[in-house]
Specification:
Number of helices: 14
CATH topology of the domain at 208-360: Rossmann fold
Structural class: alpha/beta
CATH architecture of the domain at 208-360: 3-Layer(aba) Sandwich
Helix content: 40-55%
Largest sheet: 7 strands, mixed
Strand content: 15-25%
CATH class of the domain at 208-360: Alpha Beta
Shape: globular
Radius of gyration: 21 Å
Bound molecules: nicotinamide-adenine-dinucleotide
Order of helices and strands: HHEEEHEHEHHEHEEHEHEEHEHHHH
Distance between the termini: 51 Å
CATH superfamily of the domain at 208-360: NAD(P)-binding Rossmann-like Domain
Length: 435
């Protein structure tokens, strides 16, 4: 298998940056859920303070020689939110919207995500403020290498392990790995995950997040006593997560009645041929012009009469303004932060079963963990082994969260935060405060 090393041409498009009202501030969104779970757990005040602060925040200036011979300086961040359970884990994004506040929120999110699936990792995130689509491959390589050199003191298989995120890919991870290895004077594959298969990447990583969504959706259907066969599903976002989840759910017998991407949505009550849609995207690089359904808007898709809604594009799409109109029985959050805190209570009142992002899309970081384990062991697994172990972890994590939700009579999101926070808190209590 040869790895596709092209840089992404499609990307998450935030329709309007001014939409970031307080309801949609990522750090506030994360903290309001954290606070509720911490209160229910009766977290001691000292530990509450510790977990509300990131361990380490690094900001670096990244000078890059551009192709026109001029030097440009970019700003990069890396935040290690919490490393009590193990090395920090979290992606690096290249985007104009990157800010320290956002990186901090995403690093905290990674801490809870790794803990909810019980991986021996802490949480981190990194980003560089830039527009990668306007940069040449050479400029991006120089940016990546200089940013890596800037944050190298935190990096390492035992301390901080990045992965791809918005607008970065396995090509970028290969540069990070090479730069780190050059500094260490030997090859260190386990310093990043999401690498090309040929240099220590894991089989099954590309499909892992979508596969994880499929697994937890099946568990939710089972829990609610709904059959899988014939279950109707609407998927927003037809990229890595959305297209794989749609394909695998269709294979399990679900009927995917709507899909969408940044160019718009398509609805077909008889079920969309997902294979045909994937083929279309491969050729055209978007769903534009797809003839397998009637055109709808992305907003229409969210309020369709379906059993399962799978938002897998961008954050803050289900808000207090449209949550009342959502008709799905289950929401599986493939994207990070698709539901605002303001929408949570509305969905709960309506009895909608939400599989929260930190659980629903944890399949990706779980197979990243497998990649790290395989690199460190120098022994690589078959795709079947990867998928079997992923199924095991996702199923077990769903059950852990559901059990706590029933025990405390709370929704799945609050329960997921309670599971993660109590796991991180337990390790802090055991380790004590170093003085
Ligand atoms: P991707 O770039 O492969 O796909 C994104 C899709 O969303 C594309 O189809 C794009 O056209 C569509 N899109 C962009 N803007 C849109 C808009 N305004 N309205 C509707 N659709 C829009 O990205 P991905 O890797 O599939 O990630 C999707 C989401 O899942 C993100 O929130 C990401 O953070 C999250 N996530 C991804 C992974 C992973 O392993 N890829 C893991 C965890 C979480």
């Amino acid at each position: 298998m040869t790895t596709d090393l092209r840089l992404p041409t499609d990307r998450i498009v935030r329709p309007d940056k001014d939409r970031f009202l307080n309801e949609e501030n990522p750090f506030e969104a994360m903290m309001s859920r954290f606070d509720r779970a911490a209160e229910l757990l009766d977290l001691e005040p000292g530990l509450y303070k510790v977990l509300r602060h990131p361990e380490k925040q690094i900001t670096v200036s990244v000078p890059v020689m551009m192709d026109n011979g001029e030097v440009e300086v970019f700003i990069g961040h890396r935040v290690l939110y919490n490393t009590s359970r193990g090395p920090a884990k979290g992606g690096i994004r290249f985007d104009l919207n990157v800010s320290l506040e956002e990186v901090k929120a995403l690093a905290a999110w990674m801490t809870w995500k790794c803990a909810v699936v019980n991986l021996p990792f802490g949480g981190a995130k990194g980003g560089v403020v830039c527009d990668p689509l306007k940069m040449s491959a050479g400029e991006l390589e120089r940016l990546t290498r200089r940013y890596t050199a800037g944050i190298i003191s935190t990096l390492g298989p035992d301390s901080d392990v990045p992965a791809p995120d918005v607008n970065t890919n396995e090509r970028v991870m290969a540069w990070v790995m090479d730069t780190y290895s050059m500094h260490m004077r030997h090859t260190v594959t386990a310093v990043v995950t999401g690498k090309p298969i040929e240099m220590g990447g894991s089989l099954g990583r590309r499909e892992a997040t979508g596969r994880g969504c499929m697994i937890v959706t099946k568990e939710a259907l089972k829990h609610l006593g709904m059959p899988i066969r014939g279950t109707t599903v609407a998927v927003q976002g037809f990229g890595n997560v959305g297209s794989v989840a749609a394909e695998l759910l269709q294979r399990e017998g679900c009927k995917i009645t709507a899909i969408s991407d940044r160019t718009g949505g398509y609805h077909n009550p008889n079920g969309i041929d997902i294979e045909a849609a994937i083929k279309h995207v491969r050729q055209v690089r978007s769903l534009e012009g797809f003839t397998g359904g009637d055109q709808i808007t992305n907003d229409d898709l969210l309020t369709l009469d379906v059993d399962v809604l799978l938002p897998a594009a961008l954050e803050n799409v289900i808000t207090s303004r449209n949550a009342g109109k959502v008709r799905a029985k289950i929401i599986c959050e493939g994207a990070n932060g698709p539901t605002t805190a303001g929408a949570d209570s509305i969905l709960e009142e309506k009895g909608i079963f939400v599989i929260p992002d930190i659980l629903a899309n944890a399949g990706g970081v779980t197979v990243s963990y497998f990649e790290w384990v395989q690199d460190r062991g120098g022994y690589f697994w078959t795709e079947a082994t990867v998928n079997e172990r992923l199924t095991d972890i996702m199923t077990r994590s769903f059950a852990d969260v559901l059990q706590l939700a029933k025990q405390h009579k709370v929704n799945m999101r609050t329960a997921a935060y309670m599971v993660s926070i109590s796991r991180v808190a337990t390790v802090h209590r055991l380790r004590g405060i170093y003085a």
